[in-house]
Backbone:
């Protein structure tokens, strides 16, 4: 941690999600000691950190970073394949709400993709303003079709919005996983740097956004620019939630 950073544990209280201030940027780091598979508590903790950023006028950008192994590995497959449909729906809709939250946040959200980002991890990349990843043989992409799963409507919506049209077929229907440079070309990432520079570069980008963007104008522009996509994602998440009622 830099001398200027202020640290606090995330609301999970177990060290999985933590946050520290770097000037006007909130760095949120996630490390479950494994591959950062999404769980409902983890997603709630991430959501709470964005709450914190949006409620604090002194925070003007957020960076979300994974651990040395992965950004996020996707949903916990023990839940997805566990046979409890209600639990599966709760997890998937929480993931959809989180991706939508990042894409609709009133402060810019920058991804520090520190390693692999597959399935829901790749979808979170699509929900961030700027994505910095490693120029390395990591695996980034939507592999759902290869593991006998179908993307929910909210995921299809953000994929169509953010991925390169030229790569959409192979990224979604053909479940191709890409390395860092391939992920830039396809639209999962905006830039690929050396693996040890990912977090620092993401913080640099976030600090520049914090300094140069007017907060009120940014929030209003996000509502206008992304409103249709956000509304479609909201409707999809609510439909899916309704299936477990």
Residues:
């Amino acid at each position: 941690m830099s001398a200027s950073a202020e640290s606090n544990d995330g609301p999970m209280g177990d060290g999985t999600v933590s946050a520290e201030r770097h000037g006007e940027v909130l760095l949120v780091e996630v490390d479950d000691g494994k591959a950062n598979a999404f769980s409902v508590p983890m997603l709630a903790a991430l959501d709470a950190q964005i709450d914190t950023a949006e409620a604090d006028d002194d925070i003007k950008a957020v960076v979300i970073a994974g651990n040395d192994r992965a950004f996020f590995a996707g949903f916990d497959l023990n839940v997805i394949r566990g046979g409890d449909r209600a639990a599966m729906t709760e997890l998937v809709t929480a993931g959809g709400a989180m991706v939508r939250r990042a894409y609709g946040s009133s402060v810019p959200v920058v991804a520090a993709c520190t390693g692999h980002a597959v399935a829901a991890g790749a979808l979170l990349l699509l929900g961030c303003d700027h994505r910095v990843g490693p120029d390395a043989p990591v695996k980034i992409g939507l592999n759902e079709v290869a593991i006998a799963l179908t993307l929910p409507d909210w995921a299809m919506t953000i994929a169509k919005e953010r991925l390169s049209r030229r790569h959409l077929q192979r990224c979604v229907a053909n479940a191709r996983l890409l390395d860092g440079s391939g992920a830039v070309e396809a639209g999962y990432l905006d830039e690929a740097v050396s693996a040890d520079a990912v977090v620092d570069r993401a913080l640099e980008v976030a600090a520049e956004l914090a300094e140069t963007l007017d907060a009120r104008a940014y929030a209003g522009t996000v509502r206008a620019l992304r409103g249709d996509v956000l509304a479609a994602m909201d409707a999809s998440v609510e439909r899916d939630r309704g299936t477990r009622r």
